[in-house]
């Protein structure tokens, strides 16, 4: 049987040259477009708007530090946990405003709309709350001693815990549906008199005095 001879010859693979990329020296020039200039009239308008915001917040509080502390005139950070002794909030609309744990001694809330506001654990000693709308306010743990509540409407307010009204003027105040400790109720009944001009309810009747 004839032997088959296989002559296998191997050749080295050819080296394939890779393309060489060279940086082109003649790049197209980069064109820098200048930013459009802001008209002076527009810059002036923006500046005036900023001044108006500053003036508005300062007028509301009468204190630039207060105006910016909470980021806005009605921000919670402006009125919550703050020392607002003697501040004038008379006639203001402060619906659901947060005054939790704030010091509000001798503060003026005369005629203010405080519907649903929170005075939780706040110090309202000597504050003027006369003629104020205090419906649904939270006075839990609040110190309301020596305050003026004449003709205020406290219908549905919360006064739980150690809330104290000792020494307060309550002529014409409406305490309808206000949960009071029995000792506070007895004390208030001794000094209660007058009729609330808004609701027409006698103060003694709203306190459920005997």
What is the CATH class of the largest domain? Mainly Beta
Order of helices and strands: HHHHH
What is the general shape? globular
Beta-strand percentage range: under 5%
* Mean of all residue-level pLDDT scores: 78
Number of strands: 0
**CATH domain fold name of the largest domain:** Pectate Lyase C-like
Question: For the report, how would you describe the main beta sheet?
Answer: none
| Rg | 38 Å
Q: Which architecture name of the largest domain does CATH use?
A: 3 Solenoid
Distance linking N and C termini: 137 Å
- Name the structural class: mainly alpha
Count of alpha and pi helical runs: 5
Work out the count of structural domains: 2
State the low-pLDDT regions, or none: 1-13, 18-25, 49-73
* CATH-assigned homologous superfamily of the largest domain: E3 ubiquitin-protein ligase SopA
The helix content, as a percent range, equals 10-25%
Organism: Cinnamomum micranthum f. kanehirae
Protein name: Thylakoid lumenal protein 1, chloroplastic
InterPro entries: 5peptide_repeat (IPR001646), At2g44920-like (IPR044213)
């Amino acid at each position: 049987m004839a032997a088959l001879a296989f002559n296998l010859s191997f050749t080295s693979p050819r080296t394939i040259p890779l393309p060489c990329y060279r940086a082109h020296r003649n790049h197209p020039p980069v064109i820098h477009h200048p930013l459009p200039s802001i008209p002076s009239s527009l810059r002036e308008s923006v500046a005036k708007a900023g001044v108006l915001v500053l003036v508005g917040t300062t007028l509301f509080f009468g204190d630039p530090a207060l105006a910016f502390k909470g980021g806005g005139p009605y921000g919670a950070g402006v009125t919550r946990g703050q020392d607002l002794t003697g501040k004038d909030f008379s006639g203001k609309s402060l619906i659901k405003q947060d005054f939790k744990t704030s010091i509000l001694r001798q503060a003026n809330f005369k005629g203010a709309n405080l519907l649903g506001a929170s005075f939780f654990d706040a110090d309202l000693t000597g504050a003027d709350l006369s003629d104020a709308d205090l419906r649904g306010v939270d006075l839990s743990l609040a110190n309301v001693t020596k305050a003026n509540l004449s003709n205020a409407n406290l219908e549905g307010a919360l006064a739980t815990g150690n809330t104290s009204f000792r020494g307060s003027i309550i002529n014409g105040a409406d305490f309808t549906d206000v949960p009071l400790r029995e000792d506070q109720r007895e004390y208030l009944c001794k000094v209660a008199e007058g009729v609330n001009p808004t609701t027409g309810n006698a103060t003694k009747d709203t306190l459920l005095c005997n």
